[in-house]
Amino acid sequence: MMIFFIIVFCVALMILFFAVTIAGGKAHDRANAEAASRARAKSATRSAPEDTGST
Predict the structure, then answer these.
(1) Which of the 8 DSSP states describes residue 54?
(2) H-helix or E-strand spanning residue 18
(3) Is there a domain that residue 30 lies in?
């Protein structure tokens, strides 16, 4: 009976490990997407180089 409880406990820990790993990965993906959108917005607001007309 004790072995059964140890196995159940280990399986519960594995499930917890995978759940936390997946949640952490999604949080990093979300943060990276926000950083990329901020970088795109920043580059879009930069002014284009002026045309001096020299050819």
Answers:
(1) -
(2) helix 2-45
(3) yes
**12 within a domain of the structure (yes/no):** yes
Whether the per-residue pLDDT at 37 is higher than 70: the answer is yes
Domain count, the chain: 1
In tens, the pLDDT along 4-22 reads 999 999 999 999 999 999 9
* Token output for 25: 């990965």
Domain that holds residue 23: 1-39
Cα(1)–Cα(48) distance, integer angstroms = 73
Q: Name the DSSP letter for residue 47.
A: P
Give the distance, in angstroms, between the CA of residue 37 and the centroid of all CA atoms in the same chain. 13
Q: How far apart are CA 54 and CA 43, in angstroms?
A: 26
Can you read off the two tokens belonging to residue 38? 């901020």
Q: pTM of this prediction?
A: 0.58
